[in-house]
Amino acid sequence: MHLSALFLSAFASAALGALNEPCAGPGGVAGVCVTTSTCSASGGTTISGGCPADPADVKCCSKTSCANGASGNCRWTSDCAGTTVTNQCPGPAAFKCCSSGATGFGGYAAPTIPTAGTSSGACKAVSVAGAQAVVAAWPGRVREIFCTRACACPGTSDHCCGKAIDLMCSDGGGVPTSSGREIAEWVMNNRASLNLKYVIWGQRIWNPSEDSVAAWTSWRAMEDRGDVTQNHWDHVHVSFN
């Protein structure tokens, strides 16, 4: 699934909250942005501030115990190391009761690394090197990598000039995951060797020229762009200088 078409409306008007999309509950457990009444009806608990730009009645809801074996817990299906059952958890269908307490992040075959070129719209060497570094540091965690987009350089995106990569880290395009947080923070911590311009994950952005090193939960919040992919809940976006 190529992402170029999905980003055409990347700068659409901001909505109030990322309803039914991921968030981080207490201790980093998987959560979902839902209304407080939905969370309460499902037996979950809420925390404030977990859903960027959320209205007062939309909060991060998590549920760490549900009826699917001794370790049953609510999480995104892409991250479940066991089996899942429905009708146990708040939020959308992809947030289900998992039988395992272990993360199911990744497990993918090694992705194809983009090829570098010298033409205006080709993937640049810095992007290829960045992709190689991430895959080496996180084997099995990246399913697919995109670099270029069908747009003239400089365009409105670093993809137009081949100076950005999208690291797909869920089971499919548009499939939410919590997996990208560790990868995104690793990119931040290795900013110098990667020649990083900025990194985006989970509706938050970090730029070495503007931001202090911090946990992803403290990164600058971005507007709600309308879906899982555009809000970067299925991939990590990395731009290079």
From TrEMBL:
Q: Which residues form the signal peptide?
A: 1-17
Keyword Nucleotidyltransferase attached: no
User: Where would I find the ARB-07466-like C-terminal domain in this sequence?
Assistant: 120-233
Q: Which InterPro entries match?
A: ARB_07466-like_C, Zn_M74/Hedgehog-like
Keywords from the UniProt entry = Signal
Q: Which SUPFAM superfamilies match?
A: Hedgehog/DD-peptidase
| Superkingdom as given in the UniProt entry | Eukaryota
| Name of the protein in its database record | ARB-07466-like C-terminal domain-containing protein
Species name for this entry? Schizothecium vesticola
Taxonomy, top ranks, is: Eukaryota, Fungi, Dikarya, Ascomycota, Pezizomycotina
